[in-house]
Amino acid sequence: MAKRLTQKPCDSTPVQLHADPTAESFAKLAWAIAHPARVQIVRLLIGREACICGEIVDCLPLAQSTVSQHLKILKESGLIQGEVDGPKVCYCINHEKLDQLKALVADL
Amino acid sequence: MAKRLTQKPCDSTPVQLHADPTAESFAKLAWAIAHPARVQIVRLLIGREACICGEIVDCLPLAQSTVSQHLKILKESGLIQGEVDGPKVCYCINHEKLDQLKALVADL
DNA sequence: ATCGCCTATCGTGAATGGACGATAAAGGAA
DNA sequence: TTCCTTTATCGTCCATTCACGATAGGCGAT
After folding, report:
1. Reported CATH class of domain B26-106
2. What are the structural domain ranges in chain B?
3. Residue (of B71, B74, B61, B65) closest to B32 by Cα position
């Protein structure tokens, strides 16, 4: 790359689009819901404001370990939270993060 | 899977969350912007309402072929459109698709 | 027709994602 | 304690992504 030096780059600003931290966090958040199973999980948790646990597994045509993996990804993204309740774990939506995602997309 | 038959599944609806076509298209659209480079490209195209061409390459710290790949992904998602203009190609945002994405996220 | 520029595509390699079964860890109940 | 249930993690396999250089095709200019 870097060969077209005879003309101005984008707009009037030099270049400086490299490694945009905003784009990175945006992409991460978007990636968290960039899978049908994760979209369904998020919607499920939104649908019932209250938290639920491994019934999520019963709602998806996936193995328990696979669902657990998706839940981990969603948890790491911050979109959902898990809280241990005895031997079970209740998950619920993190509305702050969800609103943040909504704002990021809306402000596109 | 399918072992917990002694208790009701999620909510009162049987199960039927399998292969939700809505979730699939949502996930596809989200995946299209689930990469920092693609977020930057989309923002760039939104910033300048008009279309631009391979200057995008100069705005990203990526090889031309890599950028072309990302553009292809975005084009296939419908979020952007490319129109040939002589030896160059001008890309622009597909506002309909973008609005669709916004609506999908807002209605979460 | 030939040259040079712009872009898409091909081929490759490294890394990651997604799915599964098996297993481990934690807690409640008998 | 000993089970049983619930969930997370491990290891593995296959598919896909992402990045690159090289190459091919299109088009305008010379």
Report:
1. mainly alpha
2. 26-106
3. B74
- Reduced to 3 states, what is the DSSP secondary structure of residue B91? strand
Tell me B15's DSSP state. Answer: S
- Given CB atoms, is A103 within the 8 Å cutoff of chain B? no
Fold entry, domain A27-106: Arc Repressor Mutant, subunit A (1.10.10)
DSSP state of B61: S
Predicted confidence band at A8 (pLDDT cuts at 50, 70, 90)?
A: very low
pLDDT digits (tens, 9 = 90+) for A36-49: 999 999 999 998 86
**CB pairs < 8 Å spanning A and B:** 138
On strand C, nucleotides with any atom < 7 Å from a protein CB are 4-11, 17-23, 26-28
User: What is the mean predicted confidence (pLDDT) over B12-21?
Assistant: 51
